[in-house]
Fold:
Amino acid sequence: MIYLGADHRGFKLKEEIKKFLAEKNYQFEDMGNFKYDPNDDYTDFAKLVAQKVSEKPEEHKGILICGSGVGVDITANKFHGVRSALADDIATAKQSRQHDDTNVLSLPADEMGIGLAKKIVNVWLSTPFSNGEKYKRRIDKME
Structure:
């Protein structure tokens, strides 16, 4: 399951990513916000997504979006078993999966359009963890 969350600055991009995931037949659940609200707080949606991912961190994934991506990334990484990566390019998204087995992707809505976002989401979801010894060792040290 992929859980999605975004504040007002990420709302439009989240809605487009939902369409993209549906086209690709991914199973997902929108954790909010469900409407554009300029007074909402990114932390509320990041917590909902991170909580869901932390329940089954090897199975569940999350995609979080706010203006810079930083706030949702910091919030998500506070949850046990969550490894969130802030990615504004394809290479970072891919390496975050290969080397760090990330299970949450944080995106900066102010820095990208839907075209780049789709490419990043696609590579992040399709890239497996390398299972390399040094990467497993580093993840163990993170925990």
Observations:
- The longest helix spans residues 42-55.
